[in-house]
Write a structure and sequence with these properties.
Layout: H1 10-19, E1 24-25, H2 28-35, E2 47-49, H3 54-66, E3 70-74, E4 95-99, E5 106-109, E6 114-118, H4 123-130, E7 135-136, H5 150-155, E8 172-178, E9 184-189, H6 198-207, H7 227-231, E10 259-266, E11 268-269, E12 275-281, H8 284-295, E13 304-309, H9 310-319, H10 321-330, H11 332-350, H12 359-369, H13 377-385, E14 388-394, H14 399-411, E15 418-421, H15 424-429
Parallel strand pairs: 2-4, 3-4
Antiparallel strand pairs: 1-2, 5-6, 6-10, 7-11, 8-9, 8-10, 12-14, 12-15, 13-14
Helix pairs in contact: 1-3, 2-11, 10-11
């Protein structure tokens, strides 16, 4: 908007009219915690909006469309891949970030077999809501996002480590899109009857005001999805890959191309007493052999599997102690607050002479570096012995069977790896 300051922008004035000046951030200092990623990425934005209602979110989005602004939806901004904010790109229009954290309502439906999660709700909050019902969400902490939002996981098909459940996916969502005529429209595919007018729909949704009799039934209640059939396929092409069209449906896999106001996602019976096996080897071929052996066996699939190489282990041990300690002892909810505080501090230091943009990170890493070793002894021993590491989590009833399977596998002369069964503390640390 040539010749105009941010405060003279008609769009900014419209945003202020919608949600008040307190929740329309325009200064570089105020927007920095939202516009800069936790590891990389960042750029200038016209404004950061913090709507407190779905209706305000809808109205602000309409202003963005009317003014041809780029919109980046954002929840906790704890992602480690730079996708939560503007990157180092040559954008052709001003950018607005819509932060959804204030809109975090969760409604459990169909005897808690499903949940309707609004725009800013997190996996941690969903996990807490489900705990009294002995149920759990698709996952609790992402491999590339700490304190992840429910919608963020679905929009990015998160869940690469989830063997039974597969990527986060739903066909039930309520979202906004720009149609072929260039007009903003609201699409309600939530499976809940809420009316026709967008503002009326979104207001009722946020208040949880609907007739339970007009909610479509929940799917069959299982600890897995049909993804197990997909991942068991031993074929020349990968069975699991990004942008698999089988898992792209409206909000699912939309990756910011839609503005998602809420999703309806299934929940799962809580896995009580799950066991973690820590596998080490010096040969990636051996891990491939193990993967194929498990997938072609008649055993139930593991709950999850996560690979880590020695360099990643070393980096996490040296530079991730602050994150490790805070998550282990405070949980991902507090991690969101700590990330926000660290980003704010980095913004303050960046304005001072002789300081850079990562001073707070350096201080945190050095301070936590004074703590004694936090990782369990056996994990450190495996780091020294093996270059490649695999964490397999299985249900309690499969513990003995998986142990016997791994004994037989590593007893073969061609296999030189080893494994151990994690204690509760080792499993949490891993």
């Amino acid at each position: 908007m040539p010749g105009k300051t941010r405060h003279q922008s008609p769009a900014v004035n419209a945003f202020i009219d919608i949600m008040g000046p307190r929740h329309v951030l325009t200064s570089a200092r105020a927007t920095a915690p939202y516009a800069k990623g936790n590891r990389f990425g960042g750029g200038n934005v016209l404004a950061v909006l913090r709507p407190g209602s779905l209706v305000d979110m809808w109205r602000a989005l309409q202003v963005c469309v009317d003014n041809d602004l780029i919109v980046i939806p954002q929840s906790a901004n704890t992602g480690l891949t730079g996708g939560s904010g503007p990157g180092a790109q040559d954008y052709d229009r001003p950018i607005v970030i819509i932060s959804t954290l204030r809109i975090n309502q969760i409604y459990l439906i169909n005897d808690a077999h499903e949940a309707i999660c609004l725009a800013g709700s997190t996996l941690y909050e969903l996990d807490e809501a489900l705990a009294p019902f002995h149920r759990e969400p698709h996952s609790v902490i992402g491999s590339s996002s700490i304190g992840a939002s429910v919608i963020g996981g679905i929009a990015n098909n998160s869940g690469g480590s989830q063997i039974r459940k597969g990527p986060a996916f739903t066909k039930h969502a309520i979202f906004a899109r720009v149609n072929e005529a260039g007009r903003l429209e609201l699409v309600n595919h939530l499976g809940v009857e809420l009316g026709d007018d967008p503002a009326h729909i979104l207001d009722k949704l946020q208040r949880g005001d609907w007739d339970p009799a007009k909610v479509t039934p929940a799917p069959e209640d299982t600890t897995e999805t049909e993804y197990g059939e997909q991942v068991r396929k031993i074929v020349d092409s990968p069975a699991r890959y990004n942008a698999n069209s089988d898992y792209l449906y409206e909000a699912s896999g939309s990756a910011g191309k839609l503005m998602v106001f809420a999703v309806r996602t299934r929940t799962f019976p809580k896995e009580e007493g799950a066991t973690t096996f820590y596998v080490g080897t010096n040969s990636p071929v051996e891990l491939e052999d193990l993967r194929r052996a498990i997938l072609t066996s008649d055993m139930p699939l593991p709950i999850s599997g996560e690979y880590m190489g020695r360099p990643s282990f070393d980096l996490a041990e040296k530079y991730g102690k602050d994150t490790f300690v805070s998550i282990k002892h405070a949980g991902s909810r507090e991690q969101i607050r700590l990330f926000a505080l660290k980003n704010w501090a980095n913004g303050v230091f960046a304005k001072l002479p002789f300081f850079g943009e990562t001073v707070a990170d350096t201080i945190a890493q050095n301070a936590f570096g004074l703590l004694p070793q936090q990782l369990p002894k056996r994990m450190l021993e495996y780091r020294d012995r093996f270059e490649h590491h695999l964490l397999l989590v299985v249900s309690a009833e499969e513990k003995n069977r998986m142990g016997a399977f791994l004994d037989d596998f590593f007893a073969e002369a061609a296999h030189q790896g080893d494994y151990f069964v994690c204690s509760a503390d080792e499993a949490q640390s891993a």
